Amino acid sequence: MHHAERTRVLAEEIEGLLLEVRANIGISRGLLREAPSRVDHIANERVLFVIPDMGFFSWFVSGNLFHADSIFASLHGLNLQDLSVGLPVEIVLSHIDDCDQAHIAGGLHQAIITGDRCAFEYFTVSAGGRRQVAMIGTCLRDTQGKPSFFCGIVTEKKADLLLDASEPFKTYCDAALALANERGNLLAARYLKSALNTVL
Q: At what angle do helices 168-183 and 186-199 cross, to 10 degrees?
C-alpha cells in the first residue's frame, strides 16, 4: 500500500474510532444523568461512580509497530518515547504477567483473524508493581479487507468507589479527594478535607 493510501486509510479508521469513543461517552453521560433520579425514591441508596483514566493504543499490524500514550506506558512499565516511535508487540506482551501472556497473545491473534471486538483483563508486572488492566480493542481493515490497525483503550481495574448519593456535596468532595490523593496534589487534598469537615 502506498504512503498516501495508507495515510487515507489511517485517517478513516481514526475517524471511526473517535466516533465510537464519542458514542460511548454520550452513553456514560446519560447514565450519570439518570442515576440521581433512580435513587430519589429509595432511602440510603448508594450510587457507583467509576471514573477511570483511559490509555489509548494503536498497533500497525503488518509493520508490527505498537504505539500508545502515557497512561498505557505507565500501566505496562514501558518507556513513552519507545511507544511513540513504535515497539514490536512482543515487547509489549513481555510486560504482561507470565500467567496471562499466552491468553492475551491468543486473544489478539483471534481478534485479528475475525475482526471482532475483544475485551481482556490481565496483570502487568513492572517496577511500579503488579497492576490489573482491562483492555478493549478491535482490528480494523484496509480497503482490501486486510488487517491494518489494531486500536483500543486500556484502563486500570481498581476497587469500585461507592459514594453516598444522599449528600451530593459530600459525594463530590469524596470523589475529588480520592482523585487529589491519587495524583499527589497535597494542597487540593488539604482544602477538600477542610470542606468535608464542614459537612460531617
A: 160
**How many CB atoms within 10 Å of residue 135?**
20
**d(C-alpha 198, C-alpha 200), whole Å:** 6
pTM: 0.58
Closest CA to 78 of 97, 93, 64, 65: 93
The 8-class DSSP code of residue 145 comes to S
Q: For strands 147-156 and 129-141, give the pairing.
A: antiparallel
Digitized pLDDT (tens) for each residue of the chain, 200 residues in all:
565 665 565 555 555 555 555 555 555 556 555 555 544 444 445 544 455 678 899 999 989 999 999 999 999 999 999 999 899 999 999 999 999 999 999 999 999 999 888 999 999 988 768 899 999 999 998 888 899 999 999 988 875 444 445 555 555 556 666 666 666 666 666 655 665 555 45
**Which residues of the chain form beta strands (DSSP E)?**
46-49, 54-60, 65-68, 118-126, 129-141, 147-156, 161-164
CA 74 – CA 69 distance, rounded (Å): 9
